[in-house]
Amino acid sequence: KAGVTQTPRYLIKTRGQQVTLSCSPISGHRSVSWYQQTPGQGLQFLFEYFSETQRNKGNFPGRFSGRQFSNSRSEMNVSTLELGDSALYLCASSADRVGNTIYFGEGSWLTVV
Amino acid sequence: GESVGLHLPTLSVQEGDNSIINCAYSNSASDYFIWYKQESGKGPQFIIDIRSNMDKRQGQRVTVLLNKTVKHLSLQIAATQPGDSAVYFCAEIGWSAGNKLTFGGGTRVLVKP
Prior knowledge:
Order of helices and strands of chain A: EEEEEEEEEEE
Order of helices and strands of chain B: EEEEEEEEEEE
Distance between the termini of chain B: 41 Å
Shape of chain A: globular
Number of helices of chain A: 0
Radius of gyration of chain A: 13 Å
Oligomer: heterodimer
Structural class of chain B: mainly beta
Number of strands of chain A: 11
Distance between the termini of chain A: 37 Å
């Protein structure tokens, strides 16, 4: 069974641009969450989607948004990129709303210049 | 607020010795705890988990202990190997908030040959 797949793996964007990251969860998993990882702030929760609905949101500005499709695949978008948005963005999936193991993808490395 | 922290940022271990990584948490309502291993350039890899109604759980060469009285979690790695060199994160979930993981700061384990 394939794991959580994230694309692209690496990307470089210019300040002010926007970026879209994609995540395909493990087959059969309906919960998808996104995290930002930086050396200074560690791993921080961005949001969680379940059955195409955002169930939970972390403390990030409105420039960070996401969505989930009917096949459970998810995308996150960051608009008006800032230098501080440079980070590893991780997607995680779980079989259900609560109570199941949460697995991570390899992440998308975003560099904002 | 909720927080999960680690006592030791770096742990040097002789190959073949046992490793113990500690984690303190502050949310007494946490339902579920997970240990992840993250190697350089990769996403967090699930190691072992434990639910709040358990005190101990064993996996292959790893044991997680949960002490709810003092809100302490530990990961024991038996016969540490060079491949165990990585950063280890503890994370907790209160299922009332869905699949939102709150991570500790991480402990780097260095295995000396």
